[in-house]
Specification:
It is a single chain. With about 190 residues, the chain is of the alpha+beta class. The protein is built from 4 helices and 9 strands, in the order E-H-H-E-E-E-E-H-E-E-E-E-H. It has helices at about 35-55, 60-85, 125-130, 170-190, and strands at about 25-30, 85-90, 95-100, 110, 115-125, 135-140, 140-145, 150-155, 160-165. It is elongated. The model is unreliable at about 1-15 (pLDDT under 50).
Length: about 190
Amino acid sequence: MREFPPEPRAHDSGAPALAPQPALWTGRATNRVQWLLAAGGAACVALGVELAVDSNWTSGVAPLLMSVIGCVAAGLLVIYGTLAFVHVAVKVNDDSLEVRCGHIGLPRRRISLDDVVGADFAPRVTPRQWGGWGYRWRPEKGTAVVVRRGEGLVLRLGDGRVFTVTVDDAEAAVRVIRDRLRLLGATKHAGA
């Protein structure tokens, strides 16, 4: 059976046709310093295991148990907290922006482009501005995913909130998102 290409549609809105957009934009940012912090967390876990295996504590089981659990819990929290923010991956597609952190993709945030009113390039985002690395919230600034110092993408949402993420080639992401927003706006006006 022979397939035919689809027939071109006429634009009845009178507006000029927008150029087709790329299907996908992806970006990433990495912070290798976090591996040093993860090594510190692994050392805490190792200390907890060492205490559990080779204990010469004469003061009782309760202090030993609290020390072991404390070291292991603190170490695991440090390991997760650092490895979750070793890198961030950002993906923009036709209808949303998705941010995934770390090797397992958690935490994850998906923002529909219908909720975005603007996108801006931030030439310098620092952990100091946000109170550290990781998934951050500050009442006067909004929410951010900061994995390293450098350029970032700032989304202004329709409800007044702001979302910032550090990512390489953030200027390209801003261009793609602005093009998508124009395309979505043209589609809404044509459908109205």
